[in-house]
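W.,

You were right to be curious about this one. When I first looked at the sequence I had no strong expectations either way, so I just let the prediction run and decided to look at it fresh. Below is the sequence, 393 residues in total, followed by the output.
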Amino acid sequence: MKIQQLYYMVTSSRSLVIQMVFTLNAIYYVTTAELNALQLVLIGTILEVSIFLFELPTGLVADLYGRKRSIVIGTGLIGLAHLLEGGIPEFWAIAIASSLWGIGWTFISGAEQAWIADEMGNQELEQVFLRGAQYSSLGRFIGIGIAVLFAEMTSVQTTIVVAGGLLIGLALLIWKVIPETRFEPITRAGTSNLLQAKQTVAEGYAHIRGNTILVGLAAITLVWGLASEGFDRLWGAHLIDTFRLSEQAAIYWFGLFYAVAFLLNMLVLKGVETYIKGRYATTLFWFNVLLILTMLAFAWVGQFFVAVLLYWTIAALRNVHYPLMSVMTNERLPSKGRATILSMFGQVDAFGQVAGGPLIGLVALYTSIQGGLGVSALLLLPMLYFLRRIKHH
């Protein structure tokens, strides 16, 4: 099997199982665990604090000991997190699970991109990342249907627990089938692992500071983090509370929300892959102008079906952000230390989410969920400035 196909298999399989949880966890948090708006956002903040604290150390693990090992550890930890989250529907248990989830994701983020970039020899990255995003969307689409069917046959809580077990099984499968043939550890003769790690971090920061576009991409990553946490945690509660969906109705509606969103994602990504050749900053600029306007409308619209159409538009627009940012970033990174530098970007994103999440949560708690969603949209505005600067380069 070609290395690209293995990459698509891993990303789509993990996306399928994680989406089984994501399809239902907003329902689980609101109806079973009965979390309020601030608790919903704090769950995300705890996750992002974990990412912020562990992104660099786990990136160094990937650069020192291997990207494959890092991916396996991360997938297994996310599985454990979902077992805990689904097993105990209490705020404290969900908070610990969110922390585990964040740590697990830091082992994957950066490491997986670095692994495929190295195995491909930095060739055809645009096609691989965009097509990988399409396969990931396909996996999520299938996961939505499985989640709805399984939740109907059993319960929302049981589905989350089963997904946790499947992720642990996937981690073992990755260890068995994924090759790693071009990994070069960041070793230096006569130096300890701690000193090597320190030197790698210093070189990574120097590499980012020395490239104007990478600095701009880091700023965009920060702004995206500030705005995204509030929306991620509140959009589901907005639809459930504002339009008074019961748990049974929410299972089917959320399945439909995600299913149509991922079909749109695949279509939009295919269009970007076909027609956008190198015009990444321009594409992201106009997509984010439309995203801000759509998020503001979603927050305040009073009609359920209009809100659903707006959510689908938001989901499709947001899904373009990550693969295009990955292409622009990876094209400017060296192979050695790549995972560590990518982890720095992940750390910037986490810092933004840690800073923005509680702010949006407090706005939502003391005004309304709609107010929190509106603030999330406005926090994206500075990103347009940095995208315009990158366009000129």
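Here's what jumped out at me. The CA atoms of residues 7 and 250 lie 33 Å apart. And, maybe more interesting for your project: The chain has one domain: 3-179+192-392.

Coffee later to discuss?

I.
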